[in-house]
Design goal:
heteropentamer, A mainly alpha (260), B alpha/beta (317), C mainly alpha (285), D alpha+beta (347), B: 317 residues, alpha/beta, five-stranded antiparallel β-sheet, two-stranded parallel sheet, 12 helices, globular, D: 347 residues, alpha+beta, Rossmann fold, OB fold (Dihydrolipoamide Acetyltransferase, E2P), six-stranded mixed β-sheet, 8 helices, 20 strands, 24% helix, binds adenosine-5'-triphosphate, binds spermidine, binds magnesium ion, membrane (chain C)
């Protein structure tokens, strides 16, 4: 493939990725009362409505908090599982992989329902967030696992051995050698976990605590009865928010390591 | 110590209104705090079933009769203690059809909504969906999962067959309708974008779209209307049964019914509420017209739910 | 082999948290579901008394459901394939390209995930609908007479799924490519391979772990996707996941819904295993 | 200071044993070399001592204690990997600091130790580079420095100088040897270079195909090789044939007395190192067997000749290039009788 | 058959030039070695010839044609990378077949060629192994075989034998040299081993710090080194001082005649290689200067002595271990006058 052709190809894909989102963003500046396109005049009116809507603001805070917690738990458990899978699983490899993918293979609704029954049967109920966070962790775990294990395929075990020979214990080896070298996979997996948790609907819908709400549920409930561009404004803000998380992680953590 | 009632409610504008107005008014009247639990019949039903009838997380639910009737059959609810519901007697007969087990707290009649700018011949009858070529490919229908979808089937069965139970006729009609746009919820965005030009619509929704400037209108079809209902039920083992009754009575009161009418353009179920002239356009159904709203045998639907859903899926294109 | 007990035991600590999590919160709850799939259908209740194989029998005996499995798999394959073809070059560019735009490119790649599914579908309606921007533009230019059917069909579903699943393809491939020593390509060139050949014979096979991960994710995700097919597909194209959701939470047919859902999962698992077998990397330890 | 003892150590990767029941006892502070052809199992042995590979059978003891249960990081070893295994995401300085940080040395000391070792490996000024920005030999020196800077109890070096030039290699040898002696580090040194093994080691272990062929001091190995294979591996050998008669073998070089029980009339093979042979001009008048120069190979300080003797036998001879002979020249060859050793009779 | 000419080639990675304006003209079929200390720019030069690194300045011509725009794969080169760069996902056989497939050779020929080259590098039986299942030296041999099997026009070898033992290395040298001669491949051979450069090459290029110090035949380089640095790099040298008088320098070794314009009374430095010195027992009655053995280093075929002359000067001497002297022994040293060469006067 020639270089200009390649670049154009990539640009087209980026445009494709951006297209429906651009529509939403543009619609959010609609001065009119409807989610229509093209917008009837431009204004920030729906942003003002949104910022003054305590319900949405609270839902965003809840979602951010849950997504962060989910990302941390999933990130840790999933990375550990990936390490096992790549270096220790032996004959169990295929089994481990299918098991780790199970939460994705099983329909989210069914997982949600079975988990709902389970939390009630063990007396946890939905008065707290345990059930919902467990659900989020289950759903996001495969993403961390897959990304981390893919990036570990090119990790040279000799690096760990060298660190070990220099006196580094298990955790130090992981933190100082392996983690920096599989960073793209870990960060990718964690970003997926964060974003998916931020966006997951069915699990939250079924397992949310009584009286609380996450942003997708709030949006869903809102859109059942409201058709104003406020929803687009909310979405635009959530795009900006998560984009910021992505760009900051790239800038601060660096998503590429120079090995060669 | 202040008591707290968990109040299940719909989201969006409903939640906003409950938060800003209904909840505080109830608190003012009774001194009890209110926790809103936003959701819908599906999730409340799932939660109740998971928790079991003995330890429900709610004291009352207000939801579509189609969900309520199932839960009722499974023993979650109790027969209403009418002595605690002073407003029950003032309800239209339509709202009292459950033999004292529930009381309809809100009615949104459903007729035919359409785009006045995109449709030349305005619809008059449900049959126009089949007969008006302008509609072809631009008809919206609720899917079977939605209670409105089930009612579409029963209605068409009734129109094209012997009665609501003649679902063969209903499915045959749906088959003939050709390609339609099915939605699970939110018919409005399709109508606003023009993808849909005609569809079953509740009048309150049309009223709000029209007030927001969309060229839409809605007709009461010759064959009659159906409705989104919201039946109030009290849990047999309610943690706060007293409060639940107080809240139910509060919702059925003329004041609250009137407030909901002004806010959501529902048709009040308390016969003491009079629709003012300036609201007649947005709330076209009230008084004697309430009896023109068709009602359905939900037991029939619930028992045959699986089979009907499957036939629906196989039929609709 | 003389492996000390500690060494045999310690790696298990790595998998323990995941195993406990999955065991307690997935396997145990699902035992209930497996039992459920053998219960009698209810009459106005989620399930009735007694047990039966009928739920599975119904699935296998009715071509309607078999057809759905075919539809679902077909959509899954196409979506996966298209994601791979569209995503690989982007992954390559992100992994090897100039660093200036990487953060931006990365954010762009993730952007489809940043918009809630309902709102995203709204965006697609605006673009692909009969009355949408694309159709209006094409009609406006006189290129077409009537609207192209871009939505409310399998095409629309695939477009929307490809869009939202591309990130799951691109990211694992990107990190796999980053792990390939560029001197291997240099070696291939020195042996007479053109850029294209050295890509095909060296970079591509060495990025297989990433491709494998991406394909599995996308395939599995498209099998179980239901909001996009129902919103974009207008419920005209029947897929398993949509039917499962209908059965489980809309029409409360828990036994049949569970059976359907388990069949869907087993189908997915079978394909994951087959795919794993087909792409086994013998050069790995 | 640790004594390392290996007993019947075996490793099988699945295609037959790579290391086959070897036993070595390495004394405290001893410098031992593993010498052997490519693929004979040197690296595998080293990795088992380090604890990176599990042995298929056998035992490894440090100071008499079985170390199966001791994790690598507790063994206090320093290892140079054949392929370096430098941490690609760390600068040279960070690579070197790693082991010292693990030992919780104060920052100051870490800094001075790194500066010192960088100076020793002649990489002062390279501390901020990443491994990918270094040449092959520079990387190898960093790998060496990283293992040495921690001054471990046991040093395991896998071809640590393979990519260095003669001069640097010489300097590195001295550096390693000095440090090893000063700190008293028990050292296992893997090399394919017999000269290196000879000059550095207290003892040399010669391995072939996963087995130990001989263990001994450098001069043992060179002068009393256990068999022809060892002899040929640690240097060149000529095989000279001759008939036994009267406790003397008559060869093209003249009569060579032999010890040992050889029947008269038996045909015996004698070994002779090329550098044991003296080469003289044909007209020098000295005693010697006449020979013809077939070819010569010049390597700077030395010249290797291939000669054909009157008997038709071909011998290799190595001399200093004080006098040079051209291909085809006639010369005289002579070797002292005590430089021959018997290898056995011809079958 | 290709002539390669390099003109004022320079490469700067950003920290000053790694290769600094070098020019070499390599004749068709010539075997040239790049020799120099670690980090002097050998690999970089090779990579520029191959086309993997863009030169910062300068030109490379194949048969007079500038190759800047010729992609690597069209240059018909064979390259051995210092780190091997074996394809990890291909077996040994597939690695070797790769280049042949690119040349669209028939399957049969590919098979026979691979079998032949595997035999040459002594890896028959390893064809189904993956690189990670090979020892370091085995990997290096596969890398070598992969470059040789395609019989390219230009061969670029970067330390291709660094991990092999002396015996195998010797065999590989012969193999490379034979193939190179037979096919007439223009070859650039990077090595840190001066003996290797000397024995194999038509000409040797000695590099220091990115610059060329000398280009010449092996004996040019060894016997007429351009400067002390080159002399020291390609072998050991002793610096002997002496006063000039009457076109003769009087040194501890006796009087050495010199050519060149040196004023009488000037103090001159003379170079002398250790192997040029003869070592004799003190009581042998031969002529020579007396000296004391300080230390000796035994490396099998050779012994290195450090001696102290009567003047207190220290000299290194290399001899065969025919006669061994102990530390402290008194000996006589002698060197032919023609083995000294002048390095200049003392400042
Ligand atoms: N990618 C790079 N970035 C920066 N500097 C580099 C890079 N590659 C090589 N260098 C530097 O350029 C100089 C020459 O490197 P080169 O690899 O050519 O050396 P060499 O002669 O092959 O050495 P060796 O014998 O150790 O392999 C070295 O000082 C090295 O540190
Ligand atoms: N991971 C492995 N799988 C299978 N065989 C292996 C593996 N590692 C090494 N071997 C084989 O074991 C034998 C010994 O290998 P080892 O690396 O110990 O050799 P070595 O003596 O270090 O050789 P070199 O001098 O070439 O580095 C070799 O024949 C090699 O092919
Ligand atoms: N927003 C797309 C991510 C959706 C994750 N869904 C998981 C499905 C599990 N069956
Ligand atoms: Mg080795
Ligand atoms: Mg190099």
């Amino acid at each position: 493939m020639s270089k200009p052709f390649f670049t154009v190809y990539c640009l087209i894909i980026y445009a494709f990725l951006l297209a429906p989102i651009a529509v939403v963003v543009i619609a959010s500046f609609n001065a009119g009362a409807f989610l229509t396109f093209p917008p009837q005049g431009l204004s920030f009116r729906w942003y003002l409505v949104f910022f003054n809507n305590e319900v949405f603001m609270r839902a965003i805070r809840t979602s951010l908090w849950i997504a962060t917690l989910t990302m941390v738990i999933s990130g840790i458990i999933g990375t550990m599982a990936a390490m096992f899978y790549v270096t220790h699983a032996g004959k169990l490899k295929e089994t481990v992989r299918v098991a780790m993918l199970a939460p994705l293979l099983l329909p989210e609704v069914l997982t949600a329902i079975s988990l709902l029954f389970f939390v009630y049967s063990v007396g946890l109920g939905t008065q707290n967030l345990v059930g919902m966070i467990v659900g989020h962790v289950l759903i996001t775990l495969p993403f961390v696992f897959i990304n981390v294990s893919a990036s570990m395929e090119s990790y040279d075990p000799a690096w760990s051995l060298a660190a070990q020979s220099l006196g580094a214990g298990r955790f130090t080896r992981f933190r100082r050698i392996m983690l920096p070298l599989i960073k793209p996979g870990v960060i990718g997996g964690c970003l997926f976990a964060f974003i998916i948790s931020f966006d997951v609907f069915t699990i939250s819908f079924m397992l949310k605590g009584v009286g609380m709400s996450t942003l997708p549920i709030q949006l869903f409930d809102y859109l059942r009865t409201n058709f104003t561009p406020e929803a687009a404004a909310v979405s635009t803000c959530s795009i900006v928010l998560t984009m910021a998380v992505v760009v900051i992680s790239e800038k601060v953590l660096g998503l590429r390591i120079h090995r060669f | 110590q202040q008591k707290t009632l968990v109040v299940p409610t719909l989201g969006g504008v409903w939640e906003q209104y409950w938060r800003s107005t209904v909840g505080p008014a109830f608190t003012k009247q009774t001194g009890a705090a209110v926790t809103l639990d936003v959701g819908n019949g599906r999730v409340w039903g799932a939660n109740l079933r998971a928790a079991g009838a003995a330890k429900p997380p709610y004291s009352m639910v207000m939801t579509n009769e189609v969900f309520a009737s199932g839960l009722r059959k499974e023993g979650f609810f109790e027969k209403l203690d009418l002595t605690k519901l002073s407003n029950y007697n003032d309800l239209y007969p339509l709202a009292k059809k459950t033999d004292g087990w529930g009381a309809i707290g809100a009615v949104s009649p459903i007729g035919i909504g359409y785009r006045t700018d995109l449709v030349k011949t305005k619809p008059k009858s449900w049959k126009d969906l089949w007969n008006n070529p302008e509609f072809k490919g631009k008809i919206g229908l609720y899917n079977f999962a939605n209670s409105a979808g089930k009612m579409e089937l029963l209605l068409f069965s009734k129109i094209f067959g012997k009665d609501q139970y003649d679902v063969d006729a209903g499915f045959a009609a749906l088959q003939k309708l050709g390609s339609v746009i099915q939605v699970d919820f939110n018919m409005s965005t399709g109508l606003a974008s023009g993808e849909i030009v005609v569809a079953p619509f509740d009048f309150g929704e049309i009223a709000r779209l029209r007030r927001q400037g969309l060229p839409v209108d809605c007709v009461i079809p010759e064959e009659g209307m159906f409705m989104f209902d919201q039946t109030i039920n009290i849990l047999a083992n309610a943690p706060e049964k007293e409060l639940a009754y107080q809240y139910a009575n509060f919702l059925l009161s003329p004041e609250v019914q009137g407030m909901m009418m002004k806010e959501f353009f529902i048709s009040p179920t308390n016969s003491k509420v009079v629709v003012p002239a300036d609201l007649k356009v947005d709330v076209p159904v009230s008084g004697a017209d309430m009896d023109k709203i068709l009602t359905w045998d939900w037991n029939f639907v619930n028992e045959k739910q699986g089979e009907l859903a499957e036939r629906w899926a196989k039929t609709i294109k | 082999m003389i492996v000390p007990p500690r060494k045999r035991f310690e790696p298990l600590l790595l998998i323990a948290p995941a195993a406990i999590l999955l065991g307690v919160f997935l396997v145990l709850p699902y035992l209930n579901i497996v039992v459920m799939s053998f219960r009698m259908p209810g009459q106005g209740t989620p399930y009735g008394p007694g047990f039966t194989l009928g739920n599975y029998g119904k699935f296998f005996s009715d071509f309607f459901y078999v057809q759905q499995v075919i539809n679902t798999l077909w959509i899954g394959f196409l979506t996966t394939f298209i994601c791979l073809v569209l995503g690989y070059p982007v992954a390559l560019q992100l992994a090897r390209g100039a660093s200036a735009f990487r953060a931006l490119g990365y954010a762009l790649v993730l952007s489809p995930l940043l918009v809630g599914i309902v709102i995203r579908s709204y965006g697609w309606t605006i673009l692909l609908g009969n009355n949408g921007i694309i159709n209006r533009t094409l009609t406006g230019w006189g290129l077409i007479d009537g609207p192209l059917p871009l939505m409310y069909n399998a095409l629309g579903i695939i477009i929307a799924l490809v869009h939202v699943f591309l990130p799951f393809m691109i990211l694992p491939i990107m990190s796999a490519i980053q792990g390939i020593d560029p001197s291997l390509e240099a070696a291939a060139r020195s042996l007479g391979a053109s850029k294209v050949t050295s890509f095909r014979r060296i970079t591509l096979p060495l990025s297989l772990p990433g491709i494998q991960a991406g394909c599995i994710l996308v395939f599995v995700l498209s099998l179980s996707a239901y909001v996009t097919p129902s919103l974009i597909g207008g419920l005209r194209v029947k897929t398993m996941a949509v039917t499962v959701v209908d059965a489980l939470i809309d029409t409360f047919q828990w036994p049949f819904g569970s059976a359907l859902a388990l069949m869907l999962s087993v189908t997915g698992a079978i394909f994951v295993v087959i795919f794993g077998r087909l792409t086994v990397m013998k050069w790995k330890a | 200071m640790t004594e390392v003892s290996i007993e019947k150590l075996t490793k099988d990767y699945g295609q037959g044993p790579a290391v086959n029941s070897i036993s070595i006892r390495i004394a405290e502070g001893e410098f031992i070399s593993l010498l052997g052809p490519s693929g004979c199992g040197k690296t595998t042995t080293l990795k088992m001592i380090a604890g990176f590979e599990d042995a298929t059978a056998g035992a490894i003891r440090f100071d008499g204690r079985d170390v199966v249960h001791v994790p690598v990081e507790k063994r206090d070893i320093g290892m140079v990997f054949q392929n370096y295994a430098l941490f690609p995401h760390m600068t040279v300085e960070k690579n070197l600091a790693f082991g010292l940080e693990m030992r919780k040395l104060p920052k100051d000391e870490i800094r001075t130790r790194i500066a010192k070792v960088l100076d020793m490996v002649q990489l002062t000024g390279y501390s901020e580079r990443y491994p990918r920005q270094l040449s092959g030999g520079q990387q190898q020196r960093v790998a060496l420095a990283r293992a040495l800077v921690i001054e471990p109890k046991i040093l395991l070096l896998d071809e640590p100088l393979a990519n260095l030039d003669a001069k640097l290699r010489e300097e590195m040898r001295v550096f390693i040897r000095d440090l090893q002696r000063r700190v008293g580090i028990t050292t296992v040194y893997v090399t394919h270079d017999q000269a290196e093994a000879m000059t550095m080691s207290d003892r040399v272990v010669v391995m072939f195909g996963g087995r130990i062929a001989q263990i001994g001091t450098p001069s043992d190995i060179y002068e009393r090789p256990a068999n022809l294979e060892v002899a040929e591996f640690v240097g060149q050998v000529n095989i000279i044939r001759g008939k036994v008669g009267n406790r003397v073998v008559s060869t093209a070089f003249g009569d060579v007395p032999v010890n040992g029980d050889f029947a008269d009339g038996a045909e015996l093979m004698l070994a002779l190192r090329p550098e044991a042979v003296e080469l003289l001009p044909i007209n020098s008048g000295a005693t010697g067997a006449p020979a013809k120069v077939l070819s010569s190979y010049y390597s700077g300080s030395l010249v290797d000749y291939r000669l054909e003797l009157a008997t038709g036998a071909v011998v290799n001879v190595q001399t200093f290039p004080r006098t040079r002979f051209a291909d085809g020249d006639q010369v005289l060859v002579h070797a002292p009788a005590d430089r021959f050793w018997p290898l056995g009779t011809v079958a």
